Amino acid sequence: MNNEISYNDVALFENIKEADLDKLLVCIRSFKKEFKKGQTIYMETDNIPYVGIVLYGSVHMLKNDIWGNNTLFTFFGPGELFGESFAVQKDVSSSVIFKAAENTKVLFLAASNIIHSCPNACGFHAQIATNLFHLLGTKNQKFLNKIEVLSKGSIREKLLAYISQLAQEQNTKYVNSPLSRVALAEYLSVNRSAMIRELSKMRDDGIIDFDKDTFIVKELNKSKVPSLP
Q1: 3-class SS at 195?
Q2: Are the CB atoms for 59 and 109 separated by under 8 Å?
Q3: Phi, psi angles (nearest 5°) of residue 28
């Protein structure tokens, strides 16, 4: 049984009273939809009139080239917003694919009803519009993280950059990766077999250990991650 994230933990609903949420969700024409693992949420070139919030599961943002190869741009977990960069544009057609990476439930919100003034002048409506534009700014960090990872020259350097980012986000040396080995290789743009060999070498060198999708960081730069327990 999948547990939905509480609306109190969704950044888009920050500073909105729980008593106002039901009114808000009606005002902005929201609805929920479930997707099976591997099911496409938005196709490339689809119009995207709705922003999505992951209630449980995860969503991958992918790009296909003309030979049919997938590149994993980024990923979204419970509470995170996706599709907003396309939904708030005048031309709302997508240039990427959004796909459920596992069984996933999404809350969809009509973007036009968020960014345009409410005729009832609801205070909470103005708050969600403010929250959305704040998130558009902070969301760029995900793409900066990806650029940092891809800028590294070797597979080891890319892995270290990825694990380092997660360790700092989660503030622990026991790092839970939201990506499977297949998805991680796509995200790093490297060969999966070569990546797995490099992970084994890093374990042999005493840099990390791992158990399934959990990495244990053994060598830390204390000045970079001062508070890891």
Answers
A1: helix
A2: no
A3: -105, 20
- Record the pTM: 0.82
pLDDT, tens digit, for every residue of 10-60? 999 998 888 888 888 888 889 999 999 999 998 876 677 888 999 999 999
Per the CB < 8 A criterion, the answer to whether 98 and 82 are in contact is: yes
Neighbours of 228 (CB within 10 A): 16
CA separation for the pair 139, 88 (Å, rounded): 14
Structure tokens at 178: 């939201």
Strand 40-42 versus strand 97-100 pairing type: antiparallel
Q: Residue 23, Cβ neighbours under 10 Å: how many?
A: 15
- Which has the closest alpha carbon to 81: 110, 116, 106, 63? 106
Residue 147, both tokens: 């650029």
d(CA 206, CA 186): 25
- Those residues with Cβ within 8 angstroms of residue 225's Cβ, 6 or more apart along the chain or in another chain: 164, 167, 168, 171, 173
Backbone angles phi, psi at 41, to 5 degrees: -95, -50
86-109 pLDDT, tens digit per residue, is 765 555 555 788 999 999 999 999
8 A C-beta contact, residue 198 and residue 156: yes
Q: DSSP code of 223?
A: T
Q: Which amino acid is at 108?
A: F
Please compute Rg for the chain using Cα positions. Answer: 19
* Pairing verdict, β 214-217 and 174-176: antiparallel
CB 26 within 8 A of CB 130: no
